[in-house]
Amino acid sequence: VFSTRSAWFPCSKSVAASVTIKSFREGSMKFSVAVVLAAAALAAAPADAFARPFGVFSTRSGLKMSATTTDEVVVIPTTPIEGMRPGTSGLRKKVEVWQEKHYVENFIQSLIDTAVDSNGGKMLDTIVVAGDGRYYNDEAIQTISNICAANGIANIWIPQGGIMSTPAVSAVIRRRTESGGGEDGEGIAQGGIVLTASHNPGGPGEDFGIKYNEGLGQPADEKFTDTLYQKTLEIASYKTVADSPDIDLNAPVGTKYQLTPTSAVTIIDPFQNYLDALKSCFDFDQLRKFGSSGFSILFDGMHGAGGQFAKRVLVEELGLPESSLMRCNPLPDFGKCHPDPNLTYASELVKKMGLKSDGSADASTDASTLPMLGAANDGDGDRNLIAGAGFFVTPSDSMALICDNYEAIPQFAATGLNGVARSMPSSAALDVVAEARNIPCFVTPTGWKFFGNLMSSKESFDGKDYTPFICGEESFGTGSDHVREKDGLWAVLAWMSILSKANEGVSEGEALVGVKEIVTKHWAKYGRHFYCRYDYEGVDSDAANQVMDIIRDNLVNGDASSVESGDADIKFVDAVEFGYTDPVDGSETSKQGLILNFELGPSGDPARVVFRLSGTGSAGATIRMYLEQYENDTSKHGISAPVALKDLADEALRLVQMEKTTGREAPTVIT
User: Fold this and answer.
1) What is the pLDDT of residues 449-471, one digit of tens each?
2) What spatial distance separates the first Cα and last Cα of the chain, rounded to whole Å?
3) Taking the model in full, what pTM does it have?
4) Which of 30, 234, 201, 224 is nearest to 132 (CA)?
5) DSSP state, 163?
6) Which is the catalytic residue, given 23, 89, 165, 198?
7) pLDDT value of residue 614
């Protein structure tokens, strides 16, 4: 009538906790120590404490009680740990920080408590736990599963292998139904815990992160993350399951692990719901036909989570050869690469597409021998790089092109688009198209959660329906309302669809219309928005904040007429700090970037430079400088963006005193 884990009668938490700790961590002495502690507790028990036995001894993994609700769950005392404020995409820290005692446990317990509050005080019934496969992914999944079970979450879904792209997690939350549809069970997930630091490096000494997706598959909003942070400052204990069996993440789909009598882990198919989502957007039969008619692609998975999804879609569904894939096997350290799909970090793909590091064409390469389409994913599969043979497409241009060619995408062909949106730092190329096509266009702060509100305006707030909807960020993120995350593979299939449509009238044997032809035709119609970004990574935080203060004091709050120009053809007009009032819920977001507006002589065309501090790194600060200028003269459209924007960049850097303040003579990365 006693357990080697705890006594079966009411007793103090300290007694129960001490029994649990001693019972399973003393080697061969664990049982005798547990008996002494239990016996000490028995002496103080009320006379009727043993009216009914609660369990029997078993020999599974040694001498201990069979599983019951009471003997599995323990409460571990803890204290708050500073620095757990989530950013725009969850909490990211060096992996060694996450490996510190109680760190994951504190954050997850605070997250679950916040989710319960947002669920009207009721414990969640079902949750997805998945990661991008980076270092510490598997260990963290085991820890998180135990905490979820101990808190009473009945169903914990883990994808086979433990790896799932971020858009795929959103698809599981949005698309699974009560009746299920496969051997991995049924039910509707009320949220998802995603283990990712997105495009940041992985491995020892590198980054790890955790974010939360709410019930519509969308990233947690600011109210949720603010509450979560407050709970991390107040936490006194967390719940977990003592001595639970390890979960074999590679077990067959449908395998169940009963962690407590009321909570179980189920291994689910990582692909099916996401595949269903993509098939609702695109004509796979048409894409398969186009793929066999001269089209070719080179897809770089950067050893992230998106690689296995690209293989499933491009090779197994669309019939493209496996030679179309590179680095599509997920690795904990991403093969020592930085899994950010830009011109710098996707350099191998960039070279194979006949491009130089600045995005201009390599004249020594024969474009006719290159793949028709080049693409890359980041660590968690939500970002994308798009290129043609010898031709780089900026993320802002890519979004504008998808908007202008929406008829080529079945998802939009019948109804058109009811809304589009871009992050403020992205170029205005989308705005020009939206105005011409009479489509409502929104400019939001950086962070996919702001797009989520617009996409869910009717679904969540009974407001105006902006779907079908596309949106994107300059940081290589593009997506639509099929999920509530950006989706790298969706963007690739959108470009395949545009290319397929552009080549409908091309006879067999004729040269296919390529990416370059489509984009240059677009520029001739709408003008070109030259665009690039300078990243100054790992800047001392004080110096980074000083740069922003200089801009506020001298340019935003200063007298624009007193600012001396260093270049006669670049006139400073004014500076503003971007703020946003959400048109859906009325929430206000301030200090979202500093915008410097210029006028170019002699044309008078507009230009701007945006400065932001990034919250997506785990050490130091990253100053991002976004450069944009409009050019209507088609004879100048062929200039590479970094060259076209060099004078504008020099003038902006002079005004903000970048080198003097930070000591940086050049950016870390130009994309």
Assistant:
1) 899 999 999 998 999 999 999 99
2) 67
3) 0.87
4) 201
5) B
6) 198
7) 81
